[in-house]
Amino acid sequence: MKSKNEKDKIEEKAFMTSVGLKRFGQWKKTALGKTDLSRKGSIDEALIPWVTLINEYPLTYTTSCCSGRIAIIEQPGAAEIKKEGLEWIHMSHIPITDFDEIKNKIKNRIKSNTNSKSTIYFKFEGCIAHFCVENLKLGKKLFDLSRQVGFRNSGISIGANAKFTIQIRGTNSLEVPLSNGDTLLGTGHVYYSITIQEL
């Protein structure tokens, strides 16, 4: 019969809680050397200090991040939602400051639209980030800290070869229709929906 301490040591050995500096360093070098394949193709300006901080620390590195996104898109209909091949009317990672410009973009899209059932939506998605850590103890500490500062939908994933990834995600999001077919909803509604992102 094995003692409890022996069983604990066997279980700890079977479940890796640390990657090791050499292997983690190789993963980090490979990840940071890859081309940015995001739609924007670069790091959002607001997150550059955070990304620099994470990547300068030897036990962490970033894999993806977004400071938040504002998108105005066109869907085939209110009950017909597409996730790929969307018609983008506007997309930005900074707050909208020129409401009239956006309103004109929406009106022009409505005028040129041949689908009488299409619906234009305003979408706001909050900040999200993913980064890897060398050991699970550090990952748990950073995960707890993320939730404490308001990123309540954060999590930890454990991949192949004990790759520990911290996923930072908040709960703030918004999706509202701005048009109904060929009709732009009330200007007050559109203005409120677009400018609420500044709150």
Description:
The protein is α+β, with helices and mostly antiparallel strands. The protein has a domain at about 40-125 and about 170-199: SSo0622-like fold (2-Layer Sandwich). Helix content is about 35%, strand content about 25%. It has a 4-stranded antiparallel sheet with strand order 1-5-7-6, with helices on both faces. The protein has a 4-stranded antiparallel sheet with strand order 3-2-4-8, with helices on one face. The longest helix is centred in the middle third of the chain and has 14 residues, at about 100-110. The radius of gyration is 22 Å and the shape is elongated. The mean pLDDT is about 80.
Listing every helix as H and every strand as E from the N terminus to the C terminus, the arrangement reads HHHEEEHEEHEEEEEH
Mind telling me the CATH superfamily name of the domain at 41-126 and 172-198? tRNA wybutosine-synthesizing-like
Structural class: alpha+beta
- Identify low-pLDDT runs: none
Number of strands: 10
Instruction: Report the top-level CATH class of the domain at 41-126 and 172-198.
Output: Alpha Beta
Instruction: Classify the helix fraction into a percent range.
Output: 25-40%
Per the CATH scheme, the topology name of the domain at 41-126 and 172-198 is SSo0622-like fold
Number of helices: 6
Distance between the termini: 63 Å
Strand content: 25-35%
Largest sheet: 4 strands, antiparallel
Strand order of the largest sheet: 1-5-7-6
> What is the rounded Rg?
22 Å
By CATH, the architecture of the domain at 41-126 and 172-198 is named 2-Layer Sandwich
